[in-house]
Amino acid sequence: MSSLLGVDVYNVLASAILLAHLLFIAFVICGGFLVIRWPRTAVVHLPAAVWGAVVEIFGWVCPLTPLENHFRLLAGNSSYSGDFIARYLIPVIYPENLTATMQQVFGGLVIFINIIFYFLAIRKQRSRRHRV
To answer: What predicted TM-score, i.e. pTM, was given to this entire model?
Structure first.
């Protein structure tokens, strides 16, 4: 029984995973900004950013994608092939299909953006130390 009080639990789980996936991607891309304000955030963000970049550069499928698909199938919906970016973000940003080269560029952008954020965070920390 996948229904709880008229709500399809599997659809809710699939949607929750989709939201978590989107938030994780946003954190990978922009989490370095948080490090500027709260340097200890780097302990969580740096591994996430490395994971996000590696997944894109090597064309791996994030484990959240098959998990989301699993719950979609249990809910009686169809799953999708490829990864989260190919399914949800690329159709919005680009009309063409996702290519390995595009994924590598995205992975490189994640690295580049976060190098800038971490540079700013280090610079801010050094500035604080010099004032004290």
So the answer is: 0.74
